[in-house]
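@channel anyone free to eyeball this complex?
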Amino acid sequence: MAGEEVILLSVYPSMFSMRVRIALAEKGVKYELKEEDLTNKSLLLLEMNPVHKKVPVLIHNGKPILESLIIVQYIDEVWHDKNPLEPSDPYERAQARFWADFIDKKVFDPARGIWATKGEEQEAAKKEFIEILKILEGELGEKPYFGGETFGLVDVALIPLYSWFYAFETCGNFKIESQCPKLVAWAKFCMQRESVSQSLSDPHSVYDTVLFLKKMFGIE
Amino acid sequence: MAEEVKLFRTWSSPYALRIVWALKLKGIEYETIFEDLTNKSPSLLQYNPTHGKVPVLVRDGKPVCESLVILEYVDEIWKHNPLLPQDPYEKSMARFWANFGDDKLMKSIWQLFIAHEKDQDVAAVAALENLKIVEEQLKGKKFFQGETIGYLDLAFGWIANLVSILEEIMSLKLVDGERFPHLSSWIQHFIDAPVIRDCWPPRDKMIIKFQVMRENYLAAATPK
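replying in thread with the prediction:
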């Protein structure tokens, strides 16, 4: 579309930023990527997201859209003619939104616990994390994607987590694939999509970031 | 087309009230099933196996869970009297503010409600800051989306009732007309609206329920 200005304020290893990058890539949208330094937030970020001061922020023709899943839905609606991410049937759409919401509510606290804690607290986080992944495996079932035959909202919501698996496994000294083989198989299948492989951060870079964060927060 | 619509709710859940209001705004007939969350029915566990929570909307045997997801579903199935803005940008803002209401505002007010006296000042600062942000959103508007009640009013509807109940229990006024003129005005418009008016749960029952909840939280929290 001529005259469109699309800017994404992002942070490289952020799973939430990755979601938006995947969605933009699925739709073939040309955009400017601005990397933020969260220890020194840009004036643009503070102006566009004064309430939370967080990334990702999508700026479309000067107007900010906030919160990664909300941004993904916005992208899906505005660039609706290519690779739809939300199901067209209202009931299926509600199910997809439910599971995307589930991921947001349940995954990230235990995930953080795996790298940010140790001892008993870390063991509890690992246990909870695997439990949540198993519930998601149940929902996936035998489908290729959470969306069924097509890559959709729930896949976008969850797949960035895969780039953090190496960091989780190294910090937590466990193997996710041995406990959730179906989920890892799904992740590898998603990685065959260019939008995903191009948008996910390199697992070793993610691990370096985790080490940096641990140092910064004085963990271990 | 004869549709079977059921709503699983509790007598007190503010989340379920969102759906009661939405269905009323759309003029949809439905069956209400009141749940006792200490003794959940097999139906509830069948329809919401993941969370076991209310509200659950069941339409022709198919369940939808999570109140904000249900609101959007209701709006998409019954398209008259639309709740959400049509414009994608306006819609994204409405969703953003609904999330803010649940994730930040409600949480901070709740934190204040269950805080020990020594922690109240700090908790109050967060709650007031978040209320101020919402106050800003209402400037120049009768309801969040303009002249008529919409999705965001239903999402924030709990403020109009629950806050005054918590205030009474705490003996602490949070939303006063001087500091929050727009929010106070919105509350009045909202509770006066015909669709909203007759749906509130009994106030005295609510006071007892939340008083007991508060006492339990205060007793359970280990003072440092």
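from a first look: Residues 119-140 of chain A form the longest helix (22 residues).
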